[in-house]
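re: that chain from earlier
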Amino acid sequence: METMGVDPFVFRLSIFVLAVFVGYYVVWSVTPALHTPLMAVTNAISSVIIVGALIAAGPAAWSLAKALGLLAVFLAAINIFGGFLVTQRMLDMFRRK
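^ sequence. v structure.
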């Protein structure tokens, strides 16, 4: 009996596309009152992304995975830093002068 497998690239690409759609609809359907807690959650998710990106960027030989891992580290670091800035700014709005 012969089994037909799915190409790993197509499998991973389909997961990525589904994650993009789910992320888009989750973020844009959040009410404005929940944006600060959502920012804290996205910072936590970005820290997990950085760990995975560091693993992808770790091998000594240059490859597409290493380049994409380095790009993911860079973009996730910007996301975390920007998230902390926005959260701090929003919290400063509630402090007494």
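The chain has a mean pLDDT of 79.
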